Amino acid sequence: MSSAAPVSARITALDVLDVRFPTSEHLDGSDAMNPEPDYSAAYVILRTDATDGLEGHALAFTTGRGNNVQAAAIAALASHVVGLSVEEICADLGAFSRSLVHDPQLRWLGPEKGVIHMATGAVVNAAWDLAAKRAGKPVWRFLSEMSPEELVGQVDFRWLSDALTSQEALDILRRAEPGRQKRIARLLERGYPAYTTTPGWLGYSDEKLARLSREAVADGFALIKLKVGASLDDDIRRMRTAREAVGDGVRIAVDANQRWDVAEAIQWMRELAPYRPYWIEEPTSPDDILGHAAVREALSPIKVATGEHVANRVVFKQLLQAGAVDIVQIDAARVGGVNENIAILLLAAKFGVPVCPHAGGVGLCEMVQHLSMFDYVAVSGTVEDRVIEYVDHLHEHFVDPVRIGEGHYLAPALPGLGAEMHQASLKEYAYPDGPVWSARL
Ligand SMILES: [Mg+2]
């Protein structure tokens, strides 16, 4: 990997910030399980003594309370990172990721799930941000220009080989190799398809739902999403309102955010079926593989989607092996970072299941677009039935905010992963001492 920095450059600090946005004040982001989220970031900065002055930025996303716990977990990884050679990390991000994941003491807190795994993901993603900045490329392109062998080297195949071997992964990547340049050109030209959740938050009035739904179609989105699961009567009325607003040619997905038991999910969705929901997202517990399989079997042809709370590649493996999902929803900040998401993209490709990432929150759109674009160029080779979630919140806080045009994510051009926030935002929304919070608390 190219770099103007001296070989001796070291990681000098891993800084962690607790940054929270008071989004609950406007019911933006309200759903059946999260009625009052304050979108928050446990934000990490890797600093180095390289002369290039580059830093690695990333975040773990939370919804407010507990963001300090997430930040503490990230800080617990500092001793693994500070003092390491920047060159060595950037030359083998797979080895770096495995060294964090397999810490023999910290892994007791998981293994590979929950707060500690999200902390690992944030640090691993910050290292990818740093490596891509040093290479002068956005992460999607940095990944898309790696050889199949280098990409396979990013993946931890432990616990995967009954579903996906490293040789099968290599075959998938080699098969996609010939078309890479053509697909990069298409991405640069028209971007990657997006869908919007903006119209469908539970806290919005029917009038606002109808207006925002019509605006979404006018803006070029081919799919909108509604939150459901709080009141069946309300959901039937909202689904009818949205269907009338957008007509028959636009897909409407619904998202229950884990609200139901299995039988309830099936009954509830049968009531919404006349309005032709395209997928039901998180119908029940994200750990319930057999439950998702039962919901899928009962509701076909309505598709079943999950992933934003799926803890790791092993659970994704089982969801795919059990035929429990039609759509895999990766999240940039839930699992162990870019490396584990490469594994999940490869698993989805092996099983022929489309990936439609979860995004929104704060910074999730900025990060996850890189993974879908890489998937298109170098893994699945297609955007058919694939869309990245888009929510128009909080992008103004980012140095390289997502850009949407005609219902597509435009390919990021700046080097890195996109999670870097403006210094002013980090200061203003610092919890609890930044001015936004000291005025409220
Ligand atoms: Mg969701």
UniProtKB/TrEMBL annotation:
<dbReference type="InterPro" id="IPR029065">
    <property type="entry name" value="Enolase_C-like"/>
</dbReference>
<dbReference type="InterPro" id="IPR029017">
    <property type="entry name" value="Enolase-like_N"/>
</dbReference>
<dbReference type="InterPro" id="IPR013341">
    <property type="entry name" value="Mandelate_racemase_N_dom"/>
</dbReference>
<keyword id="KW-0479">Metal-binding</keyword>
<dbReference type="InterPro" id="IPR046945">
    <property type="entry name" value="RHMD-like"/>
</dbReference>
<keyword id="KW-0456">Lyase</keyword>
<dbReference type="Pfam" id="PF02746">
    <property type="entry name" value="MR_MLE_N"/>
</dbReference>
<dbReference type="InterPro" id="IPR036849">
    <property type="entry name" value="Enolase-like_C_sf"/>
</dbReference>
<dbReference type="InterPro" id="IPR018110">
    <property type="entry name" value="Mandel_Rmase/mucon_lact_enz_CS"/>
</dbReference>
<feature type="domain" description="Mandelate racemase/muconate lactonizing enzyme C-terminal">
    <location>
        <begin position="206"/>
        <end position="302"/>
    </location>
</feature>
<protein>
    <recommendedName>
        <fullName>L-fuconate dehydratase</fullName>
        <ecNumber>4.2.1.68</ecNumber>
    </recommendedName>
</protein>
<keyword id="KW-0460">Magnesium</keyword>
<dbReference type="InterPro" id="IPR034610">
    <property type="entry name" value="L-fuconate_dehydratase"/>
</dbReference>
<dbReference type="Pfam" id="PF13378">
    <property type="entry name" value="MR_MLE_C"/>
</dbReference>
<dbReference type="InterPro" id="IPR013342">
    <property type="entry name" value="Mandelate_racemase_C"/>
</dbReference>
